[in-house]
Amino acid sequence: MTMKSGFFRRISLIIGIAAIISLVGCGGSKKKDEEGGVPTAPSADENVGDSDSGRAMGLQTVHFPYDSFILDDQAKSTISSNASILKDKADLKIQIEGHCDQRGGIQYNIALGEKRANATRKYLEDMGVAGDRMTVISFGKEKPIDTGTSEEAYAKNRRANFVITSH
Fold first, then answer.
1. Euclidean distance between CA atoms 22 and 29, whole angstroms
2. How many whole angstroms separate alpha carbon 113 and alpha carbon 129?
3. 144 vs 147: CA distance, rounded Å
């Protein structure tokens, strides 16, 4: 098997799994995208809340340096505050979304976003938050909150967003 065919087999498998998951669904509310009729995730108004919108019961988004998943002092401070909230609200469950700026390839950014989400999750676990209350997902560069091309815009997009999944 060549490298190319192995790559395409993996991509086909991923696409197939994604198709099955989208057909089966997960019981969550979905709405049709106005333009293309494609189901989308619930909006901030429909879900419990997320840190990007400021509707996550005080949880704050964590930001990362360029091309890094290392937690700097500011990120650790933000996660420590989030850990306090999560310990006080023991029934709260969250999803940590890893995001990247628009630079770089799709696969690279998916992997980097996952590393960011996992680094955030591990730090929360180290601070005493139970791992079974958290899930992680990476959106890579697919969901920027600022579509600009300045360093300021890029910095806003390099983040771990906290989405409350149940409370």
1. 12
2. 21
3. 6
Q: What are phi and psi of 161, to 5 degrees?
A: -95, 140
pLDDT of residue 41: 45
Task: Please tell me the distance from the alpha carbon of residue 82 to that of residue 94, in angstroms, as a whole number.
Answer: 11
Average pLDDT over residues 59-67: 98
Do the beta carbons of residue 133 and residue 85 sit within 8 Å? no
Is the dihedral angle over the CA atoms 2, 19, 28, 144 positive or is it negative?
positive
- Among candidates 137, 116, 138, 120, which has minimal Cα distance to 129? 120
Please state, in angstroms and rounded to a whole number, the distance separating the CA atoms of residues 145 and 63. Answer: 12
C-alpha span between 158 and 156 (Å, rounded)? 6
Q: Are strands 39-40 and 134-140 parallel, antiparallel or unpaired?
A: unpaired
The rounded distance, in Å, linking the Cα atoms of 164 and 54 is 11
Residue 18 has pLDDT above 60, yes or no: no
Q: Which amino acid is at 37?
A: G
Q: How confident is the model at residue 30 (pLDDT cuts 50, 70, 90)?
A: very low
